[in-house]
Write a structure and sequence with these properties.
The structure is a single chain. This protein is an all-alpha fold and 220 residues long. Strand 1 and strand 2 (72-73) form a beta hairpin. The model is unreliable at 197-216 (pLDDT under 50). The protein has helices spanning 2-26, 62-66, 83-96, 98-101, 110-113, 125-128, 132-141, 155-171, 184-194; strands spanning 68-69, 72-73. The protein contains nine helices and two strands. The chain is elongated. Bound molecules: heme C (HEC). Residues 96-97, 99-101, 111, 116-117, 119-120, 135, 138-139, 143-146, 149, 153, 161, 165, 219 line the site of heme C.
């Protein structure tokens, strides 16, 4: 008797659950772009009200959102380069780029050490002379074996990463003149204590990025 009651209860409950589920399935609704009789134009999706203004998706500043002016990558970052931007870029670079490009950008990240196609070093002349907008575009669109990171990295963070990549490039190829005059003595003191004479600052190659890198052909 008791067992019968329990069975009836279970049956009843599951019937209830099933009917709920059906209700959700069968509720009156339109799927996207499905035909409808309700409106004269037979479209279920309604046109935008006249004079609707896009909010947050207008993307009127094409350079900021594409890294290009027309079809050419821009030379200069369209955002102010501040210590905060570089720190953010360093952090995002650490998350999204080091797995393949490595912490110094030499292309020997852990994924590459495990067999992924090795990317070129960021410190080769071609990439050193490449424009800022080019790096933004590679992050946004991908390049060859590299997937794009448009979905993972928001536009402001892409520029922060570009700024940091520029700093990395400079860090591997700076001249003594790039160091503020009042701090050069510090550098000379460190260099003479740790580096062999051949690595004195005067021996550093002089082909380095200036404030405005030399334009180079686009490799795409
Ligand atoms: C999954 C591994 C991977 C990650 C993560 C990755 N890359 Fe790459 N990247 C590559 C590979 C591989 C190439 C070389 C692709 C080729 O030549 O087919 C490359 C190439 C590049 C190039 C050079 C393009 C050229 O002209 O040769 C740049 C610049 C670049 N990546 C920037 C970035 C930045 C910035 C990030 C982080 C937002 C990033 N990559 C994240 C794998 C990766």
């Amino acid at each position: 008797m008791r067992r019968g009651l329990r069975a009836a209860l279970v049956l009843g409950l599951s019937a209830l659950a099933a009917s709920c589920r059906q209700d959700m399935h069968d509720q009156p609704k339109y799927k996207a772009f499905r035909r409808a009789d309700f409106f004269g134009d037979e479209r279920s999706a309604r046109p935008l009200v006249e004079d609707t203004v896009a909010r947050g998706q207008l993307r009127a500043d094409a350079t900021y959102y594409t890294g290009k002016q027309g079809t050419m990558p821009v030379d200069v970052l369209p955002v102010a380069v501040t210590p905060a931007l570089l720190q953010r870029g360093q952090q995002r670079f650490g998350i999204y780029c080091t797995p393949c490009h490595g912490a110094t950008g030499r292309g020997n990240g852990m994924v590459v050490q495990r067999g992924y196609r090795p990317p070129p070093s960021f410190h080769i002349d071609r990439l050193r002379n490449e424009k800022a907008g080019y790096f933004f575009d590679v992050i946004s669109s991908g390049f060859g074996a590299m997937p794009d990171y448009a979905a993972q990295i928001a536009v402001p963070d892409r520029w922060a990463i570009v700024a940091y990549v520029r700093a990395l490039q400079l860090s591997e190829n700076a001249r003594l003149e790039d160091v503020p005059a009042d701090r050069r003595a510090e550098l000379a003191a460190t260099a003479s204590s740790v580096a062999p004479p051949a690595a004195a600052p005067s021996a550093v190659p002089s082909a380095v990025p200036s404030a405005l890198p030399v334009p180079a052909p686009v490799h795409r």
